[in-house]
Amino acid sequence: MASPIRILTAVPICDGHDSAINTINLEFIRHGIEVVYLGFHRYVGDIVRAAIQEDVAAIGISSYNGGHIDFFADVVSQLKKKGASDIAVFGGGGGTITHDDARQMKRKGVDEIFFAGTSLAEMANYVKKHYGKRKKRRVKSEPDLVLARRLTDLEEAASRGRKHRPSNDVSPARTKHRTSNVIGFTGPGGAGKTTLIDELVLRFLQCQPKTRIAILSHDPSVIGEGALLGDRATMINSQDDRVFMRSMATRGQAGGLSPATESCLALLARSGFDHVIIETVGTGQEALPFRNKLVDQTILVMNPDYGARLQLQKIVMLDVADIVVVNKTDLERAKAALSEIEQRLMQNKRKQEIVATVAKRHRDPGVDELFELIK
Amino acid sequence: MSKLGAVVEAVEKHGRFVLEQVKRARSDEKFAQTVTERWNKVKTEIPIAKAPTGLPLPRLALPEIDEPGEIARYLFGDGLPGEFPYLNGAYREMYLEPLREIESFEKNDEAVAARVSRAKKPERPTRPLLQEEPTRLFSGLMLAEDTNKRFHFLSAHQRSKRLSTAFDGPTLYGIDSDADGVFGKIGEGGVAVDTVEDMVRLYDGFELGAPNFSASMTISGPAPIIMAMYIAAAKRRFGVKVVPNLRGTIQADIFKEVQAQNETIFPTEASLRFLCDMIEWTTANMPRWYPVSISGYHIGEAGSTPVQQAAYTLSNGFAYAEMLSARGVPVDQFAPRLSFFLDCGLDVEYIALSRVSRKIWAIGMRDVFGANARGQMFKLHTQTSGRSLIAAEFKNNLTRTAAELMLAYMNGTNSCHSNSADEPFTTPSEEWIRLAAHGQAILLEESGIFKHTMNMLSGSPGMKAVERAVEKAILDEFREIESLGGVLAAVENRYQRSQIQNAAHRYEQQIYDGTRPIVGLNRYRNGADEMPEIELARTPRTKQKLQVERLKKFKKKNAKKSKHALDKLSAVVERGANCFPALLEAVEVCSLGQITGRLQEIVGRFRPMV
User: Fold this and answer.
1) Which helix (DSSP H) or strand (DSSP E) does residue A201 occupy?
2) Closest approach of chain B CAs to the CA of A95, in angstroms?
3) Residue A149 · residue A242 · CB < 8 Å
4) Residue A276: exposed, middle, or buried by beta-carbon count in 10 A (0-12, 13-18, 19+)?
5) In CATH, which superfamily holds the domain spanning B137-513?
6) Which residue of B lies nearest to A117 if distances are taken between CA atoms?
7) How many CB pairs below 8 Å do chains A and B form together?
């Protein structure tokens, strides 16, 4: 089966109009497209970096606050500068982009501008028709470009059903050239994994001036083929030249990861990053996403709202996690949750750390403590 | 329970209270007599107005009821205009023509004459008439001097100078014009303001301390910094004595930014703290200033239903009141300085949305927060819906806006902005702005709908039906928010955001599948879909360059002093004290972006919610 089309969508800097793009994203997903959504108020540099790392076929920009001629042209020219001019640029802005503007923008290399009144299906069909076939890319020396394309190849191979089993010599645990410290984050949806990782990345970038980090983040594919890959929008600190981030859709696989996770992780782990961080989708009680020594350290992120104490007995990850983070400890139930989880971990009789965090809080001491444990 | 739960209880209790009064008026003869006497007294004191055709009309229309129960239901449940719970209006006479117009009554009509002469000596003082025009026109383009010129153009014929300011994208996000990648955005969609010097230029030629002047600034994320710049600019021009006389409004509504508009730059809690710092300082030192405009407009524009708009706006307002009370700011200091801003579109709810909002706010503020009458009043600015305007066959937008204006004034809004028909394409051009402004004058001055009689369109059975349905739906929303732990907890759970997004998605779907008719788009398209010839208001590159040069000069000139001011500001913020006085000092020598950047180092950046 062919891989889904991947595109990136974003709203330009100083523009918070995300109502249209939210609706359009949903429509794209319904049409089987994987959408990496970067969010609103985004710099050109962030959009171009993300598009390259995510190896998308096209960038869709929704602009309502003016300055679109410069902004779109800047995206096109920076893509070209980085050797990624195969990535197409399209967009729209309701009535704010006139036909005259659109003509100018097209002359500057923009593929298509949609005007007010274009139906959602029309846009989705346009994307499917024009961006379904990947263009060949001249292999340039830009390392991000090369790495990104190789990850795409691995994802496509996995989608075609070629099995990348651990025995295939790609399990990171068996990879001789593995140079990175691999940290796995898992836990239920809504526990704040993404925010927590982003806060840790901020500390890595601040405290280790040369560190390079790779992030492999997962979001579920919806029935059919599409997926909304939205972690980048939350991860404001991770949009940095020293961070390589890749968003992956689970493409039908249960358990929190994608069929290509192992091989992609193996590749990243020997690509010169100091740390590789992997984030699963929100998982259930029985999930054990990191098998085969996929990672060096496992971190389970929990929310104090897990229900009755009995529920803790059912969460399998509590047996194997190296560190258990109880996030959102500003919530009322936090104190009780911390002591219940501590007792639960004591049953395991092995060295497991427990850390209380409020990741949404800037400079949270709990996140500092976690950073000390993993850095 | 947060105070929102208490508000729900108070509104329900008030409903029961009204029913009790109705029953009592029907069973207790003495009470019935009191109620009836009051009613008759009110009726006899109503002056008579005369239409230009000579038709005499009462200046206040009341329902034709004489049964004590029904009278009690009206007086306690709706209230006369200007009386609790203010359903019919925050003031007694709103848009009525001044009383002098009625002095030439028909001499041979003795009954009328008698009533008018009685009315001239009212036994209790009536509320002052709204002496200024309720028209507000939102404007902002290019550089400060360009917007200044537009302000002078717009207000040339107005008795009162009421300026409403739109800022460009970089300013709204607290970014300097010389920052990377924002060049094309300078002066687009609003005016570029980087420094106090821009602020001086922006309002040049206006008497900032005059009673007939007020400035409104539509900005929220960096509002405390912009507020400080405005005060600093006023001090530069008129000296420190002008500060207590400054009149105007700054939007500063952080909750709606996080819920809908996305123009916020610090984490929510930090933003709320800076906001409360500003409110605390301005309500103590600038008693005529409205330091927050609690806004549903952007919630509506982001796609919410009208009920969601009202429910989130009111609950945000109650949340601010709760925070300020918790800080120890006296309710009678802050409550009269809270103002509101709602959207008015074409959905049927808008027939009564603001009326119901006024009632719920009054009950909540009186019964839960103990506010006095001024603090109970829901002071409302309305804007017609920008979202309802479309590019295709755009002249239809005139009709849309006219219908929305009618609804807004039927709701007794205190002031109103009417959108220009060319808004789907561009910052409005002068031709279409003039039409938008004249639309209001036609409605209020030319037509007789609002100028002769208060309550002209209040209280029809249909309107009452909408009121009941809307009130119930708003209270249901309050209960849902309360069950999530109150407004702040619900915001952090993205509740309001996802509700708004769902509604927006449904709205778009309805347009695409045709169940929501939009003339010229999915109905009665005339085929030719050409873009109109309109003059686009785009900022020339030379102006954008000029803004960057000015800013660089300012930064160079103040390089040494700015570091000191920023360090001082940091220390105050770290200490947890009210940072507004330090902001007032910082804006003298620092640019907007410098201050934002320093504050973000301390409190972090806003993490968008998807």
Assistant:
1) helix A193-207
2) 5
3) no
4) buried
5) Methylmalonyl-CoA mutase (3.20.20.240)
6) B521
7) 127
For B79, B356, B413, the CA distances from B90, given in Å and listed in that order, are: 10, 12, 9
Nearest Cα residue to B390 out of B279, B529, B204, B497: B529
Question: How far does A96 lie from chain B, in Å, by closest CA?
Answer: 4
Residues with pLDDT less than 50, chain B: 100-130
The CATH code of the domain that includes A275 is: 3.40.50.300
Whether A146 maps to a domain, the answer reads no
- Partner residue opposite B184 with nearest CB, options A40, A70, A95: A70
- Our CA-based measurement puts residue A263 at a distance from the nearest CA of chain B, in whole angstroms, of 29
Measure the CA–CA gap between A119 and A124, rounded to whole angstroms.
9
Q: Are residues A120 and A251 in the same domain?
A: no
Is residue A156 assigned to a domain? no
Q: Do A198 and B607 touch (CB under 8 A)?
A: yes
Average pLDDT per 10 consecutive residues for chain A, totaling 375 residues: 89 92 91 96 96 97 92 95 94 88 96 88 95 73 88 90 47 58 93 96 95 95 86 95 96 89 94 95 87 89 91 91 95 90 91 94 95 94
Q: Where are the alpha helices (DSSP H) in B28-72?
A: 29-44, 68-72
Sign of CA pseudo-dihedral B250, B256, B258, B263? negative
ipTM: 0.89
Please enumerate, as own/partner, the contacts of A208-212 that have beta carbons within 8 Å and a separation of 24 or more.
A208/A274, A208/A375, A211/A242, A211/A274, A211/A275, A212/A242, A212/A243, A212/A244, A212/A272, A212/A273, A212/A274
Residues of A numbered 6-25 whose beta carbons fall under 8 angstroms of chain B's beta carbons: which are they?
12-19, 22-23
> Does B315 lie at the interface with A, CB-CB under 8 angstroms?
no
Residue A177 gets which letter from DSSP?
T
Mutate to test the interface with A, among B186, B262, B516, B606 (most CBs of A within 10 A): B262
pLDDT of B531 reads 57
Cα–Cα distance for residue pair B163/B136, rounded to 1 Å: 7
Q: Is residue A196 part of a domain?
A: yes
User: How wide is the angle at C-alpha A72 spanned by C-alphas A68 and A76, nearest 5°?
Assistant: 170
B302 vs A contacts (CB less than 8 Å): 19
